[in-house]
Fold this sequence. Notes:
Chain A is α+β, with helices and mostly antiparallel strands. Chain A folds into two domains: 7-168, Aminotransferase class 4, branched-chain amino acid transferase, N-terminal domain (D-amino Acid Aminotransferase, Chain A, domain 1); 177-342, Alpha-Beta Barrel (D-amino Acid Aminotransferase, Chain A, domain 2), CATH 3.20.10. Helices cover 23% and strands 30% of the residues of chain A. In chain A, the strands form two sheets. In chain A, strands 1, 2, 3, 5, 6, 7, 8, 9 and 19 form a nine-stranded mixed beta sheet that branches. The longest helix of chain A has 15 residues, at 199-213. The two termini of chain A are 22 Å apart. The model of chain A has no long low-confidence stretch (mean pLDDT 96). Chains A and B meet through strand 4, helix 1, strand 8, strand 9 and helix 4 of A and strand 4, helix 1, strand 8, strand 9 and helix 4 of B. Strand 4 of chain A pairs antiparallel with strand 4 (55-57) of chain B. Chains A, B: Its cofactor is pyridoxal 5'-phosphate.
Amino acid sequence: MxxxxxxxxxxxxxxxxxxxxxxxxxxxxxxxxxVMDYHIDxxxxxxxxxxxxxxxxxxxxxxxxxxxxxxxxxKAYSTSKGDVQLFRPDENIHRLNRSxxxxxxxxxxxxxxxxxxxxxxxxxxxxxxKAKGTSLYIRPYIIATEPYLGVAPSKQYKFIIxxxxxxxxxxxxxxxxxxxxxxxxIRAVEGGTGEAKTAGNxxxxxxxxxxVADDGYAQVLWLDGHEKRYxxxxxxxxxxxxINGEVITPALNGSILPGVTRKSVIDLLKSWDIPxxxxxxxxxxxxxxxxxxxxxxxxxxxxxxxxxxxGELAFNQVHMVINDMKTGDVSKRLYDTMTxxxxxxxxxxxxxxxxx
Amino acid sequence: MxxxxxxxxxxxxxxxxxxxxxxxxxxxxxxxxxVMDYHIDxxxxxxxxxxxxxxxxxxxxxxxxxxxxxxxxxKAYSTSKGDVQLFRPDENIHRLNRSxxxxxxxxxxxxxxxxxxxxxxxxxxxxxxKAKGTSLYIRPYIIATEPYLGVAPSKQYKFIIxxxxxxxxxxxxxxxxxxxxxxxxIRAVEGGTGEAKTAGNxxxxxxxxxxVADDGYAQVLWLDGHEKRYxxxxxxxxxxxxINGEVITPALNGSILPGVTRKSVIDLLKSWDIPxxxxxxxxxxxxxxxxxxxxxxxxxxxxxxxxxxxGELAFNQVHMVINDMKTGDVSKRLYDTMTxxxxxxxxxxxxxxxxx
Lengths: 356, 356
């Protein structure tokens, strides 16, 4: 049904590759990219792997004006056996299509998207870095390309995948960060676009990040848009709190991004018989737990950092130090297990990884 | 201080112009465009008028991923005297810069932006259509262009202005529309990006529009993101209600776009000694006024339609017909006066218009 016989045009000369040890996040790009077009009269067509190259668009293209776009982020890992494997790409493809539905963008056939990711990574396999902690970041995205200034869903789109070799997130070992509670700006509200992975959510969040960066905070903790009482996310990660032996994360209420790492954390905790609950949790509850000495750990979860321990949570003049600014046992175990599965260092009992 | 000696490169061959009578909105574009670049080390530089042409961007450009972008919309009008004039462009430039601040985009010198708009319109003066109700739509916008996948403000931008001759909004006379109250999706919430003119607000609103279009509704009426009780906007316009002789519009609370037409409506009403109030107004209050027979008029205001009378407001199974589906006297007077000022048919006592 769906086109999977992509045409492949390879580069004549490969780019020099950056040193695995010098890699940053999202600055280097591989030799090839995947592009597929959509027209309302034709559906998705002309999937192709081509040399990495600029995109040429009419200045009236709707992406530049009304932001109709979705994206995904996942990684390919070099295993010690010399294989390359993906971590839960099926989850990303399903989420891409859920985001598409929210943003009125035509969905993409699951198998076709999976094949596009696999074939592109395969063509650029020698770009998957091998140094400890490094990986190949995969960025699928869709943009509205119709040249039209009316506010309406676009009749034309491009689905693009680019690849970026990225460095170890923790170059000097996993390291707890300071987080400031954001009480002015709002990331998302129920009925908005918070649960879709779409550009506007990120553009709107920059100002809060800027506000606290000078004071040494790595990220902000987002509160709900209704009452500014309940915890939503931390920076662009999901967030977990371990209180009195129970791990709690905000339930997916419509304004929270359903993270793939979030889901994997919950699955792992359940498999270890550590109590884990998805529910509404207020900042007051966190404060109270901290006062009682029951706030044992806090951490963010996301594709980039996997697990990012929170060592301090600041709100107004209150600074709550968590676990003496040290990485907690559960955070550490989650990080270790998740990365060992991702890099193929241990058995994958969940069938999360897919060989390319 | 700011560069105003733009280089101008004119087309060799002008495009054929569409028939003034056949014009739609935002589908045709003129012969030239304005482009200016920004780099964090250089500021805004190289402002230039060039032939209308595609933009070429790296596929990692931040606009495609994190939606850091703002835009404006204003119009140039052909007057009966043969002049071309702009309507309150100063308001648009000030708002562009307020949007820039919210979206962490570097602001643009006021005089430079004004000069860019004037010079571009002047170069494409023969594109300003002359048929009744037609105009030249001006779309300034800024996009983040740095090729980087980190979530942070871009270090590079492009400021672009394109022009589009547009047809009369009301081809068969001003015509009241049916509006559906939206009770599932939310356009914006205080602390979000609602008061900035940025892409994400529009992308997020498409789904609500799609939902009601099949049932014959032209737009949705947006309620507040906190309680879904208070009126915010209608479609992509501001909204006014005339209740018992008083005209009421939602106060600018942080989630409502501060419309230039909205401001002009308020100014005109004040000049006519018609009571006008900016305050919070609930859907319940509208319903009650309707029941009492005191909801005399309702209308949207925006650059495209100027005034768009609301003939019916639907909520669940309730259909409130307003003024027998006819354009109200105040709506009509506002539309007539505003358009007469825009087209130079009457004296402009407010100094709103600027000759190009």
